[in-house]
């Protein structure tokens, strides 16, 4: 086992299991534009910490500003928290479970280009089901994802130890 394999195994051991989703704002590739009901779209989504928002838009006409609730409600774009705008296909990660507010400046907020999302904490990890089929009967073994991670880490550690000291 070479040094690259050992390095790859070590990196795999450090991976933290967190699921995240990419939400295309407005439901399409280039839907950050007027005449899209962003409130209706957001009400049909479930946002968790770690998820990403994708904004597709014409950057010569629109922008994306993260604002506070008051600025969101009044469409005030001069005291924003963060300018998400980069190139017209921009992403924003929802890091904390809390409400987030976004508007388009340049007067478009007043035409409905604003988005409010309520971010929830990550749900608990799901359990992994591993089927066990003995010769006589069929059973199912449920392994908690933390136990699965511990088992996988132990196996990887044994392989690394073997590679370092017995090859």
What is the averaged pLDDT score?
80
Task: Label the overall shape.
Answer: elongated
CATH architecture of the domain at 22-118: Sandwich
The CATH top-level class label of the domain at 22-118: Mainly Beta
Q: Helical element count?
A: 4
Q: Please give the largest β-sheet.
A: 5 strands, mixed
Q: What would your notes on this structure say?
A:
The chain has 167 residues and is an alpha+beta fold. The chain has a domain at 22-118: Cupredoxins -  blue copper proteins (Immunoglobulin-like, Sandwich). Helix content is 27%, strand content 25%. It contains four helices and ten strands; from the N terminus they run αβαβββαββββββα. The chain has helices at 3-13, 38-43, 69-74, 145-166, and strands at residues 22-24, 47-48, 52-56, 65-67, 82-83, 89-93, 99-103, 114-120, 128-132, 139-143. Strands 2-8-7-4-5 form a five-stranded mixed sheet. A three-stranded mixed sheet has the order 1-3-6, with no helix packed on it. Helix 1 (3-13) packs antiparallel against helix 4. The chain starts with a helix and ends with a helix.
In short:
By secondary structure, the protein is of the alpha+beta class. The chain has helices at 3-13, 38-43, 69-74, 145-166, and strands at residues 22-24, 47-48, 52-56, 65-67, 82-83, 89-93, 99-103, 114-120, 128-132, 139-143.
């Amino acid at each position: 086992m070479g040094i690259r394999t050992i390095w790859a195994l070590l990196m795999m051991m450090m991976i933290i299991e967190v699921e995240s989703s990419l939400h295309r704002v407005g439901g399409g590739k280039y839907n950050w534009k007027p005449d899209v009901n962003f409130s209706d779209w957001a009400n049909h989504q479930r946002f968790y910490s770690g998820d990403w928002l994708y904004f597709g838009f014409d950057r010569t006409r629109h922008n994306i500003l993260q604002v506070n609730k008051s600025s969101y409600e009044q469409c005030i774009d001069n005291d924003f928290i963060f300018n998400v705008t980069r190139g017209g296909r921009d992403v924003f990660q929802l890091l904390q479970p809390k409400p987030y507010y976004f508007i388009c400046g340049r007067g478009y907020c007043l035409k409905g280009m604003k988005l409010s999302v309520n971010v929830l904490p990550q749900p608990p990890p799901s359990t992994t089901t591993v089927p066990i089929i003995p010769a006589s009967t069929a059973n199912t073994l449920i392994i908690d994802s933390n136990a699965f991670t511990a088992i996988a880490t132990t196996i990887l550690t044994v392989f690394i130890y073997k590679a370092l000291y017995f090859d």
